[in-house]
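Weekly modeling sync, notes
Attendees: S.R. (lead), two postdocs, one rotation student

Agenda item 3: backlog of single-chain predictions. S.R. asked that every request posted to the team notebook include the full sequence so nobody has to chase files. The rotation student volunteered to paste the first one in as an example of the format we agreed on. Action items at the bottom.

Example entry:
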Amino acid sequence: MERIIRRIKENDPGLTELDFSPSLFVAQDTPSLEEFVAALPTNQMITSANVILRFLYKLQIYEQIQLCEAIGSLPNLQSLRFGSSGLTGLPLRLLVRILSMTKSQQQFRSLTIHSIHLHDNICHKNPKPSNANDEEYLEFRHTL
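Predicted structure, as returned to the notebook:
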């Protein structure tokens, strides 16, 4: 991970896409997630991010929030892919954090959500949410 942090900080022109997958943090003696998160907003080259939920759910909730805010603060982010290879629930609250940060960025163009199980996050178009999932979904819809 030290290498990827260095590439992010140096604005490596070959690093335009970043995959947030379980393999990102597997090396021994890796720098902290905080150092990684701090490097992202300074990068001008990354235009695409791919977030694998299996990776995201290995982090503590506060780390998930920090990482999603850092992804959303990438100044040239154009596309975001959120997905899973299994029946993982979509963390709408985290996706809303990223999207709300990209709203002011003119270059953001694409959101892809794939292979996601939405069972617990379905809203029945109730203007007055009756549970937390409805409220979370309405916030997500509003952000879009």
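Discussion: group reviewed the output briefly. The chain is about 40% helix and 15% strand.
Action items: rotation student to repeat for the remaining queue; S.R. to check formatting next week.
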